[in-house]
């Protein structure tokens, strides 16, 4: 999914040919400082194996054609401008974007003659690019190869979303149509930082690198001619330098480390293992060297391609990895080491906790809570620890920041790994979530809190200076539930429950019942703050006590856990579980009823963040949702396979129903657009379909209501927009739906162009029997959409017909 484009209805009506807007424009020279040319020197020769290089030290007008990127892009003139400027001793090209997309520069034939003389389309193009912040979230800057004209090219692109996790992408223009053909794994790309982006074209194989790391490969046969190079943007200002073109057979020297994140630990804490991958330009293995800035803080042991980090003393240190083939190539890990844990000895009068001190019958899946006398804060340092009371064995360490969890496992031992906070402050209460599967049945534990972890607190009338064994927060867990239960009760505070958390019940079902055995989970009223994971268990029914009072709420989002996510084998995996509240994999006939799923993430600082309530992932599996609330912002529901939503609310603001569903039916439901928390003046997009087969029904809305939250503006929300990828079909159909005035008269957003670009009776964007609220007109729909006749709509007017391909009548 992608961040929302700032738009007005006038733009919506004008949007049609995408790149056609710039196809008829004549080349326009940039506004360059007139005095700068005489001060510049000729560009130096290129390095060995490099066929073309541009460092902007010489005036670029003689080598580049500058093209206006469509109407509306402007800095200084109506056509946009580029400025060559000094940054220290270096000279760079600075381009300020306007509000449209298009090709902004193409190399002249004369400047590219040395490459053209080789008569080969096999070359790489590389550049250093620094994206700059715009007033809008939108986001792309692309380095072009095999450029024929503004309508035909390949692009290696940075997708930058004003600070959120971004992506490296492959874009292309082919016969005047623009496509986002492939997104690669997300990584953090931020504004005002230099990145080295490289696109390698060899035959039909395209390979992408960023900062000397391999990103991914893609096969595309659309453009085989050598062409030239150029630059393309979509409303993203940038600075660029050191453009190179060279032999595609010469690979970059590569050095990557996993994990590459900063490391926070303490003396005596667990070591970190880092895996290193290094290769030379011919693809053979490369060596690397290690250096530590302060060996009093950090020591390392190198074992082949693995490096073990060990905390020696308190302080900060940086570990550097340096390529032997290219000493300028370096990767670093910053380590922050705290002093060793010391068990506090303070005693306190009786205090309030859950489980209570000295209690029996604690649940192994519940959160632990400690109530202080008044407000307090967490320092970000120290830890909460859980010990086995029988032998003082350390069982768990919970840090106040940079924590993760491995939820599950499923029957096939897959876990969902998530970055997530495990310590939370709620008024006067500290909530502690032990790592999953830490506490065991029939055991006695005590809890300790390091001095300095909690600041400004008083407990039972005393200043809080940590909690140790002598403080007496000790409890015994209950016996394991009986085997073979097929009805499970979940209650966050009831004594007759089988589990305190819904995930506890799901774990039981996955681990103790056969795949096909039906299981009914009764979820009592309450607020369950937890992410969820279900994999490979069929016939699970989760029934809430009441739709609005039974709430599963959790904040998860793209910048925290990037990507749609999937389970991974082994408990050691604590990443990759994706941004949804509830991840479901290969589980047939999951039934959800009478409750709310709420991903509580709110956009911050103008950043759009995908934040699903539910990702239902499978190929032939079926989902039933009745009398449900699904509430989020961007990407509320991601659906694959088959699903039926009845009498349910789906609320969101950007592409909030999306995915590769074969058939997803929303019957008698409310599709509510909420106010964009980053900009209340903007409209929205309801659906982004990525249907994989033209014969699949896709997304069908039957006798449903398209409503809006108070404050959503009139006429700016569209029924759907396309992903712009040729492999996806935009099969979306609204039948007998009631539309409010927030729906744009044009109906559908045509940038990029949908697939098919003009709907038929069975393919693309379609509508039948829509009724409108006061003031909404339905006669100005875009040409890509189709108004069905009664005969064309008939095959979609019942559940039996929508799911006829699999013979399912939910």
UniProtKB/TrEMBL annotation:
Say which domain of life the source belongs to. Bacteria
Q: Which residues form the signal peptide?
A: 1-20
**Which keywords does the record carry?**
Aspartyl esterase, Hydrolase, Signal
Q: Where is the Pectinesterase catalytic domain?
A: 492-782
By its UniProt entry, which Pfam families does this protein fall under? Pectinesterase
Q: Where are the coiled-coil regions?
A: none
List, alphabetically, the PANTHER family matched: ACYL-COA THIOESTER HYDROLASE YBHC-RELATED, PECTINESTERASE 53-RELATED
Similarity comment text for this entry: Belongs to the pectinesterase family.
Q: What is this protein called?
A: Pectinesterase family protein
Organism, scientific name? Uliginosibacterium sediminicola
């Amino acid at each position: 999914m992608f961040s929302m484009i700032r738009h007005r209805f006038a733009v919506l009506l004008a949007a049609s040919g995408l790149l056609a807007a710039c196809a008829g424009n004549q080349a326009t020279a940039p506004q360059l400082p007139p005095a700068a040319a005489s001060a510049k020197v000729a560009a130096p020769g290129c390095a060995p194996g490099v066929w073309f290089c541009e460092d902007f030290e010489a005036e670029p007008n003689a080598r580049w054609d500058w093209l206006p990127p469509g109407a509306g892009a402007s800095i200084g003139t109506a056509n946009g401008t580029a400025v060559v400027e000094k940054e220290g001793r270096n000279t760079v090209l600075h381009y300020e974007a306007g509000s449209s997309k298009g090709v902004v520069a193409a190399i002249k034939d004369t400047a590219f003659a040395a490459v053209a003389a080789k008569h080969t389309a096999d070359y790489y193009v590389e550049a250093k690019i620094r994206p700059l912040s715009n007033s809008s979230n939108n986001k792309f800057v692309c380095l072009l190869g095999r450029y024929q004209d503004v309508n035909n090219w390949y692009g290696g692109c940075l997708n930058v979303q004003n600070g959120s996790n971004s992506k490296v992408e492959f874009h292309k223009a082919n016969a005047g149509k623009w496509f986002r053909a492939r997104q690669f794994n997300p990584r953090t790309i931020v504004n005002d930082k230099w990145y080295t982006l490289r696109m390698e074209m060899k035959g039909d194989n395209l390979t992408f690198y960023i900062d000397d790391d391999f990103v991914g490969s893609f096969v595309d046969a659309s453009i085989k001619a050598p062409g030239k190079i150029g630059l393309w943007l979509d409303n993203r200002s940038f600075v660029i330098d050191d453009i190179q073109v060279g032999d595609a057979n010469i690979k970059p020297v590569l050095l990557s480390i996993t994990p590459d994140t900063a490391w926070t630990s303490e003396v005596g804490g667990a070591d970190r293992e880092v895996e290193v991958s290094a290769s030379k330009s011919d693809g053979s293995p490369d060596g690397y060297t290690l250096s530590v800035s302060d060996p009093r803080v950090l020591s390392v042991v190198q074992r082949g391609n693995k490096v073990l980090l060990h905390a020696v003393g308190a302080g900060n240190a940086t570990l550097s990895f340096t390529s032997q083939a290219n000493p300028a190539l370096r990767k670093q890990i910053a380590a922050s080491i705290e002093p060793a844990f010391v068990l506090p000895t303070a005693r306190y009068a009786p205090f309030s906790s859950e489980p209570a001190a000295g209690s029996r019958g604690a649940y192994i899946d519940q959160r632990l809570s400690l109530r202080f006398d008044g407000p307090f804060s967490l320092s970000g340092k120290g830890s909460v620890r859980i010990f086995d009371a029988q032998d003082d064995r350390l069982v768990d360490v919970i840090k106040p920041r940079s924590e993760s969890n491995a939820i599950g496992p499923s029957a096939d031992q897959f876990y969902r790994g998530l970055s997530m906070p495990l310590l939370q402050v709620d008024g006067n209460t500290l909530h502690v979530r032990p790592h999953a599967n830490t506490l065991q049945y029939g055991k006695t534990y005590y809890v300790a809190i390091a001095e300095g972890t909690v600041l400004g607190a008083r407990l039972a009338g005393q200043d809080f200076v940590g909690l140790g064994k002598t403080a007496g927060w000790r409890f015994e867990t209950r016996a394991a539930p009986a085997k073979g239960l097929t009805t499970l009760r979940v209650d966050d505070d009831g004594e007759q429950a089988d589990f305190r958390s819904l995930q506890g019940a799901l774990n039981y079902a996955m681990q103790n019942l056969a795949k096909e055995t039906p299981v009914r989970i009764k979820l009592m009223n309450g607020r369950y703050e937890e992410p969820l994971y279900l994999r490979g268990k069929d016939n699970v029914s989760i029934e809430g006590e009441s739709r609005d009072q039974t709430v599963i709420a959790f904040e998860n989002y793209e910048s925290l856990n990037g990507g749609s996510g999937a389970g991974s084998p082994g408990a050691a995996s604590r990443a990759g579980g994706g941004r949804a509240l509830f991840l479901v994999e290969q589980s047939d006939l999951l039934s959800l009823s009478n409750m709310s799923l709420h991903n509580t993430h709110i956009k911050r600082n103008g950043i759009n963040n995908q934040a699903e309530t539910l990702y239902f992932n499978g190929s032939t599996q079926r989902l039933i949702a009745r009398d449900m609330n699904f509430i989020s912002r961007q990407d509320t529901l991601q659906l694959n396979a088959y699903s039926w939503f009845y009498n349910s609310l789906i609320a969101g603001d950007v592409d909030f129903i999306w995915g590769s569903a074969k058939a997803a039916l929303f019957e008698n439901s409310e599709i509510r657009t909420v106010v964009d928390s980053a900009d209340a003046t903007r409209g929205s997009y309801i659906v982004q379909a990525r249907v994989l087969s033209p014969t699949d029904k896709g997304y069908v809305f039957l006798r449903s209501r398209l409503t809006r939250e108070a404050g959503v503006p009139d006429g700016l929300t569209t029924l759907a927009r396309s992903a712009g990828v040729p492999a996806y079909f935009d099969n979306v159909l609204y039948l007998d739906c009631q539309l409010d005035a927030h729906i744009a008269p044009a109906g559908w957003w045509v940038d990029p162009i949908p697939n098919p670009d003009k709907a038929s009776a069975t393919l693309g964007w379609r509508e039948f029997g829509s009724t409108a609220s006061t003031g909404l007109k339905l006669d100005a729909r875009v040409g890509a959409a189709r108004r069905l006749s009664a005969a064309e709509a008939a095959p979609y007017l019942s559940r039996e017909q929508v799911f006829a391909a699999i013979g399912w009548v939910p």
